[in-house]
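Narrative summary of target 7.
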Amino acid sequence: MRVRIATRGSPLARWQAEHVAGLLRTGRSSSDIHVDVDVVVVDTVADQRRDVPLWEMGGKGVFVKEVQAAVLAGRADLAVHSAKDLPSVTPAGLVLAAVPERGDARDALVGSTLDGLAVGATVATGAMRRRVQLADRRPDLCFAGLRGNMARRLSQASEFDVIVVAVAALARLGLANRLTEVLAPWLMVPQAGQGALAVECRSDDEGLRARLAELEHGPSRRRVDAERAYLAELGGDCDLPAGAHAAIVDGAVVLDVMLASLDGHVVLRHRAEGDEAGPLGRGAARHLLDRGGRALVQPPVLASPTVSREP
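Modeled conformation, tokenized:
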């Protein structure tokens, strides 16, 4: 059996694709069919235009649409994504076939601890979610943009007082020693799906779906499903800063969520617990929507994000 995996071309994306390829090669199936894997690199517009902030390019989904298109067009058989980049609504013709065991979902700082930052220090990050949460904790901070693959981001770290990264990204690239402080999920609610991989294939490819089902890690899938349900209930990947982090505690799903205005003046947080991931995520979203979030989701038109505080 030969399968083609579509992925972006960054070192981290290639690591993710090769990780899934390794799972496919070593996985045990009832048919015991050997799997050969080819990696198909898709050069996305979002990767090419690193000078444009992600929120100006359409936010969530900009890194995955062209990779998904390669699978739908038959140029590849499956796609491997960072689950945090995946829109909450799966396109027609595709299915989220597997979520392998999740890595660390947390965010981290490189260059300084949060308490160690001087008043007016400059924090570099490309994510509005990270900006508004840090500004909520430290209103004195200034912010600058940061984009590109992890090597590029780390090479720019000395230009700022601190940069914000995903723990899993550095761990997978063997760079965990660069982390200065790992931020607790209650302090910095991660992006929904952060640290997890999402494996998509065509919905009518029953043979491949069965093989990919062997890669599924049940607890990780429950966590990701709760977080994605939260985003979907907000309105199918709203453009506002939003985060969600689910954990399994004594068999139940504990979900921390946040939603903020683009200017960072309003930051809403909520914790919920339940057994079923989907209803839990949707209920958490409705809780925030009913407590001021709806006014954020349907606000007057804003020209651009204002929580910039460029140095």
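The chain has a mean pLDDT of 89.
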